[in-house]
Amino acid sequence: MSQRRKFIKQSLVGSVLFLPGVAAACAQTQTTPTPTGEKPLILSTWNHGIPANDAAWAKLNETGSILDAVEAGVRVTELDLENLSVGLQGLPDREGITTLDASIMTGDGACGTVAFVRQVKHPISLARAVMEKTPHVMLVGEGARQFAIAEGFPLEEEKLSPKAQVEYDKWKVTSQYKPIINIENHDTIGMIGIDANGKLAGSCTTSGLAYKMHGRVGDSPIIGAGLYVDDEVGAATATGLGESIIRICGSFLIVELMRQGRTPQEACEEAVKRLVAKNKNIKDIQAGFLAINKYGETGAFAVHPGFNFAKAIASGNTLIDSNSHFKP
Ligand code: SD4
After folding, report:
1. By CB atoms within 10 Å of each CB, which of 75, 268, 283, 288 scores lowest?
2. CA 287 to chain CA centroid, nearest Å
3. Known catalytic residue: 188?
4. How many C-beta atoms lie closer than 10 Å to residue 52's C-beta?
5. Would you say residue 32 has pLDDT above 80?
6. Is 93 touching ligand 1 by the criterion CB < 6 Å?
């Protein structure tokens, strides 16, 4: 041990031995505030989070499994014909092909994801199958599709939904690749939940960025970017421009900040601050985060105004506007 470290160690021992009053006072001031959270609790991104939370809550009551709940919840959004950012009805890539990304994770570290997958109606369930039936975490593209066939997932015909076709035809007029800050353009569902015993799980599913390059994968199927869950600490999920979220390992960052003592709200705000610092053209980038800690306390924050989320607790399921780094 170096002389300096020895000295520091000795002086700490000395202070405890000779200043018991000070040590006792320190111990008192370090007591953490009583958590104000609530369990069970489910959070999900955007206003489609309301029906998704309802389905998740019903599933939690039915099976008692928070994993079942977060899968069932986002399956509702995967079939929502009004949603142009999730499921096979989502807006396609530049070539007119819809490709999907999804991830699912539980607080014990189990996780599964699929990316750049075609023709599968419920990529979240395929991600769960990757988690439960393979030794892997992530399957992509043709491999994911082959796995879907092997697991008995029906493959859908590759055809844009009428709404997506209209939008794609409009886009083709200029074919300009420019992600825009727009609720219509950022509609991914990320869901995180905690059961009454403190078990956590999360899910995230998307058709990704509209008119992306063929093969582009966003944050949603990247564990640590679009989703991260740890029973010892809490969970986080993300929505918005995936590249900006991947760049800061957004969801993992939030969970690690909570591990170091930040509240979920403080952790979300710090992640947004980091994202703002690390991304150029921030005025063109929207991203939002949700977090829960193991006490059932919550946080939400976005780069720009406009992000909202649904929060379900025993007394009800409500839509809440998130605060943001840039003000209206
Ligand atoms: C992505 N994060 O693929 C997704 C897009 C998104 O609401 O959140 N849309 O980059």
Report:
1. 283
2. 11
3. yes
4. 31
5. no
6. no
Rounded to an integer, the average pLDDT of 89-116 is: 97
In the structure encoding, which two tokens stand for residue 195, read together?
């059961």
Tokens standing for 42? 């489910």
Query: Cα(303)–Cα(185) distance, rounded to whole angstroms?
Result: 15
Angle between helix 123-133 and 141-150 (nearest 10): 80
**Which among 103, 145, 111, 102 is positioned nearest to 131, based on CA atoms?**
111
**Distance in Å from the first CA to the final CA of the chain:** 55
Residues 6+ apart with CB under 8 A from 112: 103, 104, 105, 127, 128, 129, 130, 131, 132, 134, 136, 137, 138
Tens of pLDDT, residue by residue over 113-128, are: 999 999 999 999 999 9
What pLDDT does 185 receive? 53
Model's pTM, two decimal places? 0.89
What does residue 321 show for φ and ψ, rounded to 5 degrees?
-85, 130
Q: Does 49 count as an annotated binding residue? A: no
Residue of 206, 217, 237, 244 with the most ligand 1 atoms within 8 Å of its CB, for mutation: 206
Q: Which residue's CA is minimally distant from atom 7 of ligand 1? A: 186
Report how far apart, in Å, the C-alpha atoms of 171 and of each of 84, 95, 126, 175, 181 are: 14, 11, 30, 5, 16
Distance CA 324, CA 303 (A): 5
- The CB of 209 under 6 Å from ligand 1? The reply is yes
**Residue 227 annotated as binding?**
no
Question: How many of the other CB atoms lie within 10 Å of CB of 63?
Answer: 12
**Is 296 known as a binding-site position?**
no
CATH topology for the 39-156+185-311 domain:
Glutamine Phosphoribosylpyrophosphate, subunit 1, domain 1 (3.60.20)
Report the distance separating Cα 264 and Cα 236, nearest Å: 9
Residue 248: pLDDT over 80? yes
For 203, phi then psi, to 5°, come to -145, 155
Query: Which pLDDT belongs to residue 189?
Result: 97
Helix (H), strand (E), coil (C) string for 21-35? HHHHHHHHHCCCCCC
Please say if the pLDDT value at position 66 is more than 90.
yes
